[in-house]
Amino acid sequence: VVYGGYRRSLGALWAAVLTSVIFVLMHVSELIHYPPGFLGVGGLAVAALWCRLRWGAIGPAISAHFAYNFTIVVAFLVSTES
Hints:
The protein is mainly α. The protein has helices spanning 2-10, 12-26, 28-31, 37-55, 59-80. The protein is flat and about 50 Å long.
């Protein structure tokens, strides 16, 4: 949604950069103690943006975010099983 507004004001490239940076910054509190996590969240930002542009809707981007979060939860649960 934010990308669409910025695209009208700033153009596609700057809208993509700005929304991706904002997305990563919104996750700083979760990543501050694990800096390599910025790569994963940055990758998710790019993947979600790609989904948004590819299908012209935010639903696929939300699905990509859900899948990313689900994968992290499953990995955590599997790693903590005794």
